[in-house]
């Protein structure tokens, strides 16, 4: 298939491009490089030995989108493009609603105009808010999001559902990712956060690399076995493979569906620290800090619907996730600014 990957130069996008190319798909990427570096796409080509086509543009720019749809017969869009920093979204809500929602509206309009009605959307466990129950199934009601970023995901899901309801010739998959971490085995692509990382794994790898003094663990008084928060960490390559499986599902043309993409295994912050130490042999200094606003005690999924209906299951364990994150950090301490 010929796939338009929005946000394809980013963290999950590049890993998915690798899997798409290796599965024999043709890949067209649109990315405005707001949170990415074109070198990442060159590295995707080096890893796979295959070419992709890159458009440096914004999904809110109808002209560039139309050019893409004129120049290519696209079969499906995988839509990663969006702003994703939770804390920043609280400070800049307008930018987040505008970029994520207006961008998606523009994309859907142009897709509809060109009769490309196959869409795979990057949603998030954030739509469950503080989940009504764990493990979270897709039947778990959506919740009150704790930040504007989460609301953009929740609202875009609603928009896509309404578009489907109005025109059931669309095929739409809403993929709710849990906590993607790790990197491609080659160490040539990975997560490249700007400034102080917000997320746990990049913070840990920077402590391991000596770039930060110690990890602050946000809260050790939660109602969990060791008092630290529990999450469902998933290897980014497993997540990438989930998108290839989602494409097979899209080809069956059976409408709209929602899938949780996670491992189903909950890991506490202390579990992650211990597994990182075991996988790498590097000790992580940490202190306990107050709880972080908006954090919930436990968030992990029941991924059995994806296994049943997509034939997809996460395969990598937390040790492998840690080892691969560390390999990427060591080979690219300054991200893609480093000489390859
Ligand atoms: P990322 O920031 O690495 O990738 C997003 C890409 O989109 C970036 O390359 C950025 O430059 C691009 N982009 C942003 N706005 C754009 C626009 N208007 N036009 C064109 N390109 C634009 O993030 P990621 O971690 O790879 O996440 C990919 C998607 O998955 C996002 O939608 C994110 O919200 C979602 N998601 C991520 C996580 C996570 O923890 N990483 C979890 C759940 C869902
Ligand atoms: C994980 C755990 C922290 C940093 C976020 C988004 C979510 C989704 C995935 C996009 C928490 C703890 C972290 C640190 C710590 N993204 N932590 N010290 O918050 O589960 O999910 O990414 O959709 O919407 O909210 O991920 O990696 O920030 O935190 O103790 O320096 O690590 O408190 O328990 P989170 P995270």
Model description:
With 340 residues, this protein is of the alpha/beta class. Helix content is 40%, strand content 17%. The protein has eleven helices and 14 strands. The strands form four sheets. A seven-stranded parallel β-sheet has the order 3-2-1-4-5-6-11, sandwiched between helices. A three-stranded mixed β-sheet has the order 12-9-14. Helix 1 runs parallel beside helix 2 (38-48) and helix 1 (11-22) crosses helix 8 (236-251). The longest helix has 21 residues, at 93-113. It starts with a strand and ends in a 9-residue tail after the last helix. The mean pLDDT is 97. UDP-4-deoxy-4-formamido-beta-L-arabinopyranose binds at residues 84, 86, 124, 126, 150, 179, 198-200, 203, 215-218, 229, 231, 269, 292, 295. Residues 7, 9-13, 30-36, 58-60, 80-84, 99, 103, 122, 124, 177, 179-180 line the site of nicotinamide-adenine-dinucleotide.
Helix content: 40-55%
Number of helices: 11
Order of secondary-structure elements: EHEHEHEHHEHEEHEEEHEEHEEHH
The chain-level mean pLDDT equals 97
Shape from CA axes?
Answer: globular
| Helix/strand class | alpha/beta
Query: Which compounds are bound in this model?
Result: nicotinamide-adenine-dinucleotide, UDP-4-deoxy-4-formamido-beta-L-arabinopyranose
Mind summarizing the main beta sheet?
A: 7 strands, parallel
What would you report as the Rg, rounded to the nearest angstrom? 19 Å
Distance between the first and last residues' Cα: 31 Å
Tally of DSSP β-strands: 14
Largest sheet: spatial strand order? 3-2-1-4-5-6-11
Poorly predicted parts: none
Strand content: 15-25%
């Amino acid at each position: 298939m010929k796939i338009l990957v929005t946000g394809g130069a980013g963290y999950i996008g590049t890993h998915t491009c690798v899997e798409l190319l290796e599965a024999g798909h043709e890949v067209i990427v649109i990315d405005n490089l707001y949170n990415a570096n074109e070198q990442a796409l060159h590295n995707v080509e080096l890893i796979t030995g295959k070419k992709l086509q890159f458009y440096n543009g914004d999904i809110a720019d109808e002209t560039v989108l139309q050019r893409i749809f004129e120049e290519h017969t696209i079969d499906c869009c995988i839509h990663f493009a969006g702003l994703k920093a939770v804390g920043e979204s609280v400070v800049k809500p307008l930018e987040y609603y505008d970029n994520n929602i207006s961008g998606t509206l523009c994309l859907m309009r142009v897709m509809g105009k060109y009769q490309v009605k196959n869409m795979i959307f990057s949603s998030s466990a954030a739509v469950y808010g503080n989940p009504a129950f764990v493990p979270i199934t897709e039947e778990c009601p959506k919740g009150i999001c704790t930040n504007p970023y989460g609301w953009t995901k929740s609202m875009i899901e609603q928009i896509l559902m309404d578009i489907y309801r109005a025109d059931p010739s669309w095929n739409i998959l809403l993929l709710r990712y849990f906590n993607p971490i790790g990197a491609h085995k080659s160490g040539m692509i990975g997560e490249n956060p700007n400034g102080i990382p917000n997320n746990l794994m990049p913070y840990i790898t920077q402590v391991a690399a000596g770039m930060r003094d110690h990890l602050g663990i946000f809260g050790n008084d939660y109602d969990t076995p060791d008092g630290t928060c529990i999450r469902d960490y998933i290897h980014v390559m497993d997540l990438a493979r989930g998108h290839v499986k989602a494409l097979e599902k899209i080809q069956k043309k059976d409408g709209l569906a929602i899938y949780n993409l996670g491992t189903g295994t909950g890991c506490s912050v202390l579990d992650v620290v211990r597994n990182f130490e075991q996988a790498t042999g590097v000790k992580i200094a940490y202190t306990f800090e107050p709880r972080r606003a908006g954090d919930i005690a436990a968030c992990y999924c029941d991924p059995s619907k994806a296994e049943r209906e997509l034939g997809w299951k996460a395969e990598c364990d937390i040790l492998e996730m840690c080892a691969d994150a560390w390999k990427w950090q060591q080979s690219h301490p300054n991200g893609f600014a480093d000489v390859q």
